[in-house]
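Priority: low. Protein: DUF3185 domain-containing protein. Input follows.
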Amino acid sequence: MKIIGIILIVGGIAMLLLKGISFTREKNVVDLGPLEINRKEKKDINFPVYAGVAVIAAGLFFTLAGGRKK
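Result:
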């Protein structure tokens, strides 16, 4: 459980620092034998601040709960 918690904490910090990911995707529009027409689309995925904080909180919960022994 501690490893999952640490991974979540690192992921949450990355979400807060990066604030989003953008990438370009090439889409095939027309394909008529030797003739091809492609279009490039730019996509953005934005991370809200509350999502990063929630992931960090979940990571802390897993880290602290994994450290307790019965």
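The longest strand covers residues 20-32. The chain has two helices and two strands.
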